[in-house]
Amino acid sequence: QKEVEQDPGPLSVPEGAIVSLNCTYSNSAFQYFMWYRQYSRKGPELLMYTYSSGNKEDGRFTAQVDKSSKYISLFIRDSQPSDSATYLCAMSGTGGFKTIFGAGTRLFVKA
Amino acid sequence: DARVTQTPRHKVTEMGQEVTMRCQPILGHNTVFWYRQTMMQGLELLAYFRNRAPLDDSGMPKDRFSAEMPDATLATLKIQPSEPRDSAVYFCASGLSMVDYGYTFGSGTRLTVV
Lengths: 111, 114
Hints:
By secondary structure, chain A is mainly beta. Chain A has no helices and eleven strands.
């Protein structure tokens, strides 16, 4: 079993839909939870990060962490075609070493 | 806008040849990572450096891969000899050691070994 599990999709939604992306993990030592966005033929770029449990909102994006369930989510409201990309969850313990990435979920937002 | 620069962007080589990939981290960043991305395995950490010293290269096949930081502005990843299974996108990322999250990735080197 992988330390971080993420459904690779693809996920296809119409423009304006609410998108929910999720990851589960097994290592209770993870403290930092990140979401990266990767456009085709580009490197991943940090979208959001959360420390420990709780919610964090940034514009149309909301990240949620439930450490008791070892489950994290990223919600995208009012999705746009420009949101079409691969979204990777990532996690690390204190010290930032050995960030572990999920497989990534491919998202397509249709106009 | 600070960014991590990787060269070359694309490399096609024959099996058995030596391949060298280069990375210029963001000025001031003291932590550098090498990742490999494939469809099957996703993003895998190969090695990382802090203040130019290698801290962990356990993800790297030691017999053919080597990673170095000759100076603070250059990191290299070398494969010798290359094999078709090494075909992947190799990413370099840099960050600050006091920040435990989020690194800046380069655009990657797409390697094809035929």
